Amino acid sequence: MNSGNEFSAPWSTSLRLITLLSTGVLLSLPLFALVNNVSDMRFEFAIVIVLLPVTILVISAFFMIRGYEVRNNVLHIQRLGWRTTLDLVGLESAETDPEAMKGSIRLFGNGGLFCFAGKFRNKKLGSYRAFATDRKLAVVLKFRNKVVVVTPDKPVDFCELVKPEKRHR
Predict the structure, then answer these.
(1) Which of 37, 50, 75, 91 has the highest local Cβ count within 10 Å?
(2) What is the pTM of this model?
(3) How many other C-beta atoms lie within 10 A of the C-beta of residue 3?
(4) Which are the contacts of 74, defined by CB distance < 8 A and separation ≥ 6?
(5) pLDDT tens digits, residue range 116-149?
(6) How many angstroms separate the CA atoms of 109 and 164, rounded?
(7) Are 9 and 65 contacting, i.e. CB atoms less than 8 angstroms apart?
């Protein structure tokens, strides 16, 4: 990304590994079915072993995080073909914290197939929402009623851009 309000979302080694392994497992199931003549299987089993893994892979790919853009007090989390928006009005603080997601439990969402996204909880942040690709680049956005973690390629620059005192000038 090239403008001052756009940031890429680099993948950590762990995200690459989890995505690679998960993709391998999900694609091995339909491959197994093809090698073992899917027409001999019961229809329900064929659906589960062929369609379900491919569907999971495709849907997860659409939720991958490709980058972040800050425009008009709104954070746009760029996905594959669409965006998730987060209104920055009411943002109380923005701080870099490479340990922010440490010890987190995923309550709902994706734990490593193309991204780490969804609702999480840990002792440090309590309940929070994450849109992450490299946990070491974490930026914690604190609002009055919620906490959001994002992982832009330049966390310090991102914080400077979104800090409430910077945006109100």
Answers:
(1) 75
(2) 0.89
(3) 9
(4) 85, 86, 87, 88
(5) 999 999 999 999 999 999 999 999 999 999 999 9
(6) 28
(7) yes
